[in-house]
Every structure is written in C-alpha cells, then in structure tokens.
Amino acid sequence: MPPDPADLQLIRAPELRAFAEHWFACRRAGERVTRRSDLDIFHLPALIPCLFLYDYDPATRGFTLRVAGEEIRRLLPHSLPGTPLEQIMPPALLPVVLERYRRVCEEPAILHGIGRVFVNLGGSGVGERIVLPLAGADGRVCQMIGATIYTFGDRLENGSTFAREEVAITFIPL
Question: Is the pLDDT of residue 14 over 80?
C-alpha cells in the first residue's frame, strides 16, 4: 500500500521524503514493512553520510549498530559497527531513544522528528530525522534504518526556526 501523501508531507527535507518514498516503493505487495534485501541504500547517495542502520533483536528488544555514516559518527563518536545502542547514546537520552526505536520496530511505524537535534550532545543546530523498520527474509522486523539531516544554526534550509529545546516527533503507523 502506498503512503498517505499527507503523512509524507510532514517530511520537509526533499532527500528524506525521497528516502521514505523509496522505502515504500521497495515494499512487497501485502507486506507492512520493506525487507532489507529489497531496499537499495545507494539509491540516494547524498544521504549515505547521514544514514544509520541497527540490527534489532526482538527477544532482548535491543539494538546493535551495523552501519553509521560519517556525519553520524562525527556527532556520536562511539558509533562503531557491532556496538550496542546503550554504549552509543548518553545515559540520560537512552530511555527516550529506546522507547522511540522500539516503537518503530514493534508497532511497526515510521518515526519522523524535526527541530533541535543533538542538543544534549552539545549540538547547536536543527535537523530532521526519519527512522524506518526493515524486515528480514521471513517478513519480521529485524532492523531499522534512519537518516538525520543536520545543519548548524537556528534555521532549516526552508527558513523554519526552532526554540532551543523544540522538537516535534511523529509516528506514522504502518
């Protein structure tokens, strides 16, 4: 089923919207979640530095980093392949991040966030992020992929401004 165009209108960055549209285009008929084997992460090469891919273990509800682009590694220096999420995220942020990422994988849903990003990590800019679930060969969610576009300063490219702590999080159920 194609996305509701109104849902994707929440995504302001054209690259992120194209990424979500590609995810939907790769989804097999009758399935809620795109399979990892069907998604071409090189379809949008400009996003590769901003991508992150985590393995998800339903038994433990834990996440292990598989891939992080150079922009993600720059802002989260512990983002090395094979590292559990608990060793990447600052302890104060971990409960919120786990809750959001688990919802992406367990509901499943698409996560969209816009506004101030990386504030608690000393970041001084705004950005936009999407996180999408990925299924394995059996159709069950076993990974999630996301991308964060981050700019320094108070404005997104479209001129939108955000207060220091302002962030809007939306989940799009699948």
Answer: yes
